Amino acid sequence: MAQALDIDRWNLECEFNNTDHRTDLNGVDRLIVRRGQKFTISLYLRSGKYQPGVSSLDFVAETGPQPSEQYGTRASFGLSATIDTSRWSAAVASPPGDTVALSICSAPDAPIGRYTLTLGRSGRIEFILLFNPWCPGDAVYMDNEQSLEEYVLSQDGIIFRGSAKYPTATPWNFGQFESEILDICLRILDMNPKCLKDPGKDCSGRRNPIYVSRVLSAMVNCNDDKGVLQGKWYGGYEGGVSPLFWKGSVEILRNWQTQKCQPVCYGQCWVFAAVACTVSRALGIPCRVVTNYLSAHDTNSNLVIERYINENGEFTQSRDMIWNYHCWVESWMTRPDLKSDFNGWQASDPTPQEKSEGVYCCGPIPVRAIKEGELTFKYDAPFVFAEVNADVISFMKKKDGSISKVTNTTSVGQKISTKSVGSDTREDITHLYKYPEGSDEEREAFKKANHQNKLLQEKNQGLHLTIKVTSDMRKGCDFDVFAVVTNNTQSVKMCRLFFGSCIMSYNGFLGGNCGFKDLLNVELSPGAERRVPLQLSYSKYGGLLNEDNLIRLAALLVDYSTKETTLAVRNIVLVNPEIKVRILGEPKENRKLAAEITLQNPLPEPLENCCFSIEGANLTGGRAICERLDSSVGPGEDAKVKIYFTPTHSGLRKLVVDFDSSKLHHVKGYRNVIIGK
């Protein structure tokens, strides 16, 4: 007859289990394990000994406020001879005696979250269960160790901003293993409206990474719920801080927690994406931040961005926009609701742009579905397809009210970028979203997506117009940009050329003019080329420039003989000065180090209120450390500080640096540091 084990006490062996489950960076003071993988606890018996085939023990694992076997949030099981990794199971892994090494394994599709496990009549333990990308039975399984190191375990990274011609690297501290962060991520799930409405059903949904990533896409922004971040793209940042203020996700998530789930002010697309990446990695979903240059925001789902200019080549604002760049995330998972070809990277976008099923969220949609033009697949395929493939049509509105079409060369969805595995270089992943331009496969995808405009696009072969720039466009300098006109016809051409520049926000909103030229009589003989320079001087653009450092150049060419109008547009990013970081001392765990940080003022005017700050996962104790300068820094002079910090863990770490002042805002830099044991 079976005899129930009489348990006196137990040891959760947190250090061993958490290390084995790759959760030890969360700390080893509590049990945090991954699903579909066994963990071992020690039981000390009050009386009697464990006897194989005789001793018994019943287990009940429960999660959520309304555990139910029907919803998969409650599981009952007993002792087995061996562990079965396909379901909840338990087995003894020690010889007979009064101390028992008990192995327990969760089902690889169990809901993630906080669990209580009841052992017989007297024992009750608590643990946190996460997704397990190392487990072949888990929907987030990834079979490449270097990719897992990058997309799950890496606490810092690079987000690409700048422009399609000159992508710039912004360092970011994801910090998913810093103290409190995992608890905050679980709280985000608990605060989502679906959970507040039906907690039992919501907790059941947490078995599915598709469901969880869709919830995160909605909860990282605050537009319909108690989400983490409030977006702001124009005006000042009163009542909060500029999105460029942030160096990582940790401070944002902690602020949301301490503010009792009131939104943190403010975020823009790369901040929303970075926070979503932190939460995904914390929960065990492989995730990366992706940047799409010249990204279309199609508000009416017609796959066309319609732009209007006046006779001077000046744009009028419209709801459809082309963002200089836009960031979202990709999460790795299977799609059992679709064919197996669509497993792998899934795009989701936490920036609030358009509603999906009545909520501001977007995705997850398989990246492969975008490439193939499969716009009926879940979720939000048409919106993401438009971001990388929309057609751009420009019209000129004349003073007499008439409207004419303008030939233009803008093509959206360029240089789609993410950080490379194991290095800070840029990986171009455009080929994952699009077939080569003009290929048969591209035409097939457009047909499937019913993207007629792209199939009918005409090219103007007569007069060719482009904008060329110099490679070194530094903030504070004067420099020339050029409109280049080429006559590919056999006849002499007389044209009017308008060449203008204006300040621009990265999401397409236009600001003040900073220089223009209007040439009424440009004559071009057959095959000739004409370069027209436009000087951009700091005295004109300096006072207008916003913190995106962006200037839009637009050239408009009117052929007097045919009345055809050609438009060329180019966005340029002015380069901030480099931040130099020198580490003083031998980098070791728990040993105080100094970072000597220097930045040279590139502007022809002094910098006031200069402040350096540093932050880094396992380097600065999960907080930013600041150092202010007492005096102003004159033109060409160095701003220089020493900031002390103490690393807590060995390994390769990234120290992220920010410099802010009256005239140079939130310049970013970083230094990779190898911390010895």
Task: Outline the structure in words.
With 677 residues, the chain is of the alpha+beta class. The chain has four domains: 3-130, Immunoglobulins (Immunoglobulin-like, Sandwich); 145-304 and 319-372 and 416-438, Transglutaminase-like (Coagulation Factor XIII, Chain A, domain 2, Alpha-Beta Complex), CATH 3.90.260; 460-573, Immunoglobulins (Immunoglobulin-like, Sandwich); 579-675, Immunoglobulin-like (Sandwich). The protein is built from 14 helices and 39 strands. The strands form nine sheets. It has a nine-stranded mixed sheet with strand order 2-4-9-8-7-6-10-11-3, with helices on one face. The longest helix is centred in the middle third of the chain and has 15 residues, at 269-283. The protein is globular, with a radius of gyration of 29 Å.
Overall pLDDT: 93
Count of helical stretches: 14
Q: Which sequence of strands runs across the widest sheet?
A: 2-4-9-8-7-6-10-11-3
Largest sheet: 9 strands, mixed
- What is the CATH topology descriptor of the largest domain? Coagulation Factor XIII, Chain A, domain 2
Helix content: 10-25%
Report Rg: 29 Å
CATH superfamily of the largest domain: Transglutaminase-like
- The percentage of residues in β strands lies in 35-45%
Helix/strand-derived category reads: alpha+beta
Task: Tell me the number of strands.
Answer: 39
Low-confidence stretches: none
CATH class type of the largest domain: Alpha Beta
User: Distance between the terminal alpha carbons, to the nearest Å?
Assistant: 53 Å
Shape: globular
Total separate domains: 4
CATH architectural label of the largest domain:
Alpha-Beta Complex
